[in-house]
Design goal:
- This protein has about 425 residues and is mostly helical.
- It folds into 2 domains: about 210 residues, no CATH class; about 210 residues, no CATH class.
- The protein has 16 helices and no strands.
- Helix 2 packs across helix 9, helix 13 packs antiparallel against helix 14 and helix 13 runs parallel beside helix 15.
- The chain is globular.
- It is a multi-pass membrane protein.
- InterPro entries: Poly_Biosynth_Transport.
Length: about 425
């Protein structure tokens, strides 16, 4: 099997995703150390809400942009990109309304303006970033991502040194670094505002790629994760949600391996899909093999010495040092879920989104039932068990879905091709 092209693409996408994940991890750890648990819990819930709102853009705009920009004739790409950025801005402004109303409803009016600025500029930067990734320009994307994600850590560190660190000031810092990165990446894309627009055709084309199934799939994946801290916050308050976020921070160190490859697999699968389902699967399954060694190594390390990892990350005397058992459970959950995420990304690339929907529906339902049953009596441990159970169900579902898809594809392209 020839893997040199996959290794080249994977190396830069992992570097870029590593920059993004390292920045998000570092800012989360910095805030966990400096903010009171209640404020840190609010930060975790607010970040989860922003990710939930971003799903609309991710499924209806970002993912279709990644697929269609790659397939569009070169002469049509500038208009497609301009139209996509305007659609992202309009969608982000509309999505900001429920975000602001939710903050007001919880008595957090002082966070409305910084949260809206952070969300809008983050979405614009993500649109520019996806435009670069669609052309496999992961190396170019690293410059803006360095400015945005590690940049926000530097900004928060300066605020902490000046004794001016608060939720509002951090959100403004995130908005600033996202805005600067968006300008840089727009320049890298050669984005020009002058020229024709194709808003309606672009929206229709994006809907044909994303549409109901993609949106529903993204929302179900988000529900699977967000039901856990919300169950804790409702039952025990924001401080309990802070503990879950602190444990999840450790597990999120594996994000570069999984999320980086999930950013690459849909484009690779879409490029090979014309040769049949089996050919597309052969073209991307090497990425699962590339992800396995680092994921296993990381998981075994954390499973063996979670106390030492927590002490290293949060420092001596931290309120989060007693989370060894939840960390172990979450590491196992992510280990079982990682292969599922990569296969789901493949299903998106070959436009088998309804199949991915079934996988994530099973996971969301299982996580919700188990979290409601276990979060109260078992706390963070119960949420870890809920996520582990949900990911085991998803793993079984995705095995069944992929097997059926390859058999169905084999009827069209030949069963011998699957066996090779």
């Amino acid at each position: 099997m020839r893997i040199r092209p996959q290794l080249r693409h994977a190396s830069w996408t992992l570097i870029d995703q590593g920059i993004v994940s390292a920045g998000m991890f570092a800012i989360s750890i910095l805030l966990a150390r400096w903010l009171p648990p209640a404020d840190y819990g609010i930060y975790g819930l607010l970040l989860g809400a922003m990710f939930g709102l971003q799903l609309v853009n991710a499924t209806l705009l970002f993912h279709p942009l990644s697929v269609l920009l790659l397939q569009a004739p070169e002469a049509e790409r500038p208009a497609l990109l301009r139209s996509a950025v305007l659609l992202v801005a309009a969608a982000a402004a509309a999505l900001g309304l429920p975000l602001g109303l939710g903050l007001l409803a919880f008595g957090l009016g002082g966070l409305v303006l910084p949260a809206l600025a952070c969300f809008l500029l983050w979405q614009l930067q993500e649109a520019m970033r996806r435009g670069l990734l669609a052309g496999f320009r992961h190396r170019a994307a690293t410059l803006g991502d360095l400015l945005s994600y590690p940049g926000q850590v530097v900004a928060a560190g300066v605020l902490a040194a000046l004794d001016a660190l608060s939720l509002a000031s951090v959100l403004y810092a995130l908005a600033l670094t996202s805005g600067l990165a968006a300008l840089l990446q727009a320049r890298q894309l050669g984005l020009r505002w002058r020229g024709p627009l194709a808003l309606r055709p672009t929206l229709l084309a994006f809907w044909s790629v994303g549409g109901f199934w993609s949106l529903g799939n993204g929302l179900l994946a988000h529900v699977r994760m967000q039901v856990l801290p919300w169950a804790l916050a409702i039952g025990a308050g924001p401080a309990a949600a802070a503990g879950f976020q602190a444990a999840l921070n450790i597990v999120n160190l594996s994000n570069p391996f999984v999320m980086g490859l999930c950013n690459l697999i849909p484009q690779a699968a879409a490029r090979a899909a014309g040769q049949g389902m089996a050919a597309a699967w052969r073209g991307v399954r090497v990425y699962l093999l590339l992800a396995a060694p680092p994921l296993l190594g990381f998981s075994l390390l954390v499973l063996a010495v979670p106390e030492a990892v927590l002490r290293l990350v949060y420092g001596e005397g931290s309120a989060y040092l007693g989370l060894a058992t939840p960390v172990r459970l979450l590491v196992l959950a992510v280990l079982f879920g990682s292969g599922t995420e990569l296969v789901v990304a493949f299903l998106h690339g070959v436009r088998s989104v309804p199949a991915a929907f079934l996988v994530n529906a099973a996971g969301a339902l299982t996580a919700t039932v188990l979290a409601l049953a276990a979060a109260g009596p078992l706390g963070i441990v119960g949420c870890g068990l809920a996520l582990l159970g949900a990911n085991l169900v998803r793993l079984g579902m995705v095995h069944m879905v992929l097997t059926r898809a390859l058999v169905a594809g084999g009827r069209r392209v030949g069963l011998r091709e699957i066996e090779q």
